[in-house]
Automatic annotation (TrEMBL):
Keywords: Signal. GO terms for biological process: thiamine transport. PANTHER family: ABC TRANSPORTER SUBSTRATE-BINDING PROTEIN (PTHR30006:SF2), THIAMINE-BINDING PERIPLASMIC PROTEIN-RELATED (PTHR30006). The lineage of its organism: Bacteria, Pseudomonadati, Pseudomonadota, Betaproteobacteria, Rhodocyclales. This is Extracellular solute-binding protein. It comes from Pseudothauera rhizosphaerae. GO terms for molecular function: thiamine binding; thiamine pyrophosphate binding. SUPFAM superfamilies: Periplasmic binding protein-like II. GO terms for cellular component: outer membrane-bounded periplasmic space.
Length: 339
């Protein structure tokens, strides 16, 4: 064989070896997170930070909590996701469906006991307060609603939105928030069912997916949603929006993450779960107008953009265990009784 021919073969062999050696590293630079929509809770910034800090590329995913659990159950035999982000109402149901595997990330021991699973199947990363996300320009000359009861007034016909409680965790939490505010309990849902039946006569808008952009545009003038979305619209996107904590009261809801059982990139999944509790990530959640689980990472500047603490005094922590127990009944009664 000629020397040039030998060189060509050797070069090809080296190139193949290099590509073969690079393939596993490239594969390890990916992870899948279910329910990480870039417009919700500023996951977009978190995903960018994960890419730059950890060199792990995570594509955005627009499932909600219910859809995520359904997908994880359907994919049990061959999991696709590595980590999942869920509303607190879905934490124990996900654990009970055996789609999560225990992992206690760095800082886990500092998370309050009622904000994590004892075995490490899930843990809180931040929380939000439910209320009214209002586009004041879209209201025209109508006043900003101040109470849950205001939403039933004829002047807001066709202007009130909430996520579908049969599939979205925030929709189910909205049912419970209103139920507790109107004198119901985790066992007695009658006040909420009555409220939503009355609201049905006001032609509400009931999307299945997060609807931030639809409020910003004014398509949905009033959305039952979280403070962090309203503050983002007000301060980051400079939209004519504001957040209202209804006078009757509301709830504070934790959001959690967990490691998917049998996920194809488990090592990367664990790194992501470590990151979301890191000082950098916790500060980012605060800058996205969420209350980080480690309160010391909420900067004074970020806190100054929240409503006064006197307003938040009407917001009470939700009982995750009792909420999870009530979840099937919320879905069943809403589906069967709200018309």
């Amino acid at each position: 064989m000629s020397v040039p021919g030998f060189k060509r073969i050797a070069l090809a062999a080296l190139t193949f070896a290099a590509l073969a050696g690079a393939a596993p590293a490239h594969a390890q630079s990916k992870a899948i997170c279910y329910n990480c929509p870039p417009e919700w809770a500023d996951w977009g910034s978190q995903l960018k930070a994960i890419g730059s800090r950890l060199n792990i590329q995570v594509p955005p995913d627009n499932k909600n909590s219910g859809q995520s659990i359904a997908a994880l159950i359907a994919e049990k035999a061959s999991p696709v996701a590595d980590v999942v982000y869920l509303g607190g109402i879905a934490a124990d149901p996900a654990r009970d469906a055996d789609v999560l595997t225990p992992y206690k990330p760095a800082g886990w021991e500092r998370i309050p006991a009622d904000l994590k699973d004892p075995q490490g199947h899930w843990f809180t990363i931040h929380s939000g307060t439910l209320g009214l996300f209002v586009n004041t320009a879209a209201l025209g000359n109508k006043p900003v609603p101040r109470t849950w009861a205001d939403l039933l007034k004829p002047e807001y016909k066709g202007m009130v939105g909430y996520l579908d409680p049969t599939s979205a965790a925030v929709g189910q939490i909205g049912v419970m928030a209103i139920n507790l505010a109107l004198g119901g309990s985790y066992d007695n849902l009658d006040p909420a069912i009555g409220f939503f039946n009355k609201l049905a006569g006001n032609q509400p808008i009931v999307p299945k997916q997060t609807s931030y952009a639809r409020v910003i545009s004014g398509e949905i003038p009033i959305l039952i949603d979280y403070d962090f979305n309203a503050y983002r619209g007000q301060y980051t996107d400079k939209a004519p929006v504001r957040f209202v904590i209804p006078q009757e009261g509301t709830v504070v809801v934790p959001y959690v993450m967990g490691l998917v059982k049998g996920g194809p990139n488990a090592g990367n999944g664990r790194k992501i779960l470590d990151f979301v509790l890191s000082p950098e990530s916790q500060a980012m959640w605060g800058n996205a107008y969420l209350r980080p689980v480690f309160a010391e990472h909420l900067s004074a500047e970020a806190k100054s953009r929240f409503l006064p603490e006197s307003e938040y005094a009407r917001a009470k922590p939700i009982d995750l265990k009792r909420l999870a127990a009530a979840q099937p009944k919320i879905v069943e009664r809403y589906r069967n009784e709200v018309r």
